[in-house]
Specification:
Layout: H1 3-18, H2 23-28, H3 37-48, H4 59-67, H5 69-72, H6 82-89, H7 97-116
Helix pairs in contact: 3-7, 4-7
Length: 117
């Protein structure tokens, strides 16, 4: 940081104090942690799995592990957009369209509460 930038930053902080703000309290506020897509998906799966009657739904998480997590699993959920979803579905849409449709629904099931919450 240059001296001029430091002066500008100090002036901005003084202005914030004059307007009734507390820069120290702002800095100490806990930052909202955005989970990765994989973390949100596993949390969603854990929340829903007890309500399923048969074990066939174990494929819910395995389809995400096979097709989604390698591509967007580490992305924060707030950065997963339609381009990411297309990136996941494009390789499988024509070959295994039924699985691709289910994966699209599962991605939506993960993103809806993650974005709303």
């Amino acid at each position: 940081m240059s001296l001029a930038e430091a002066r500008d930053a100090a002036a901005a902080l003084r202005r914030q104090v004059r307007e009734g703000g507390d820069p120290v309290a702002e800095r100490r506020k806990p930052r909202k942690v955005v989970p990765s897509f994989e973390t949100a998906a596993r949390g969603c799966y854990d929340a829903m799995k007890d309500g399923w009657k048969n074990q066939r739904h174990a494929s819910w998480i395995s389809s995400l592990e096979n097709h989604v997590f390698p591509l967007i699993g580490t992305k924060p959920v707030n950065e997963v957009d339609s381009a990411c979803v297309v990136e996941v579905l494009a390789p499988i849409w024509l070959d295994i369209s039924d699985t691709a449709r289910r994966i699209l629904q599962r991605i939506g099931a993960v993103l809806d509460p993650a974005i709303d919450g």
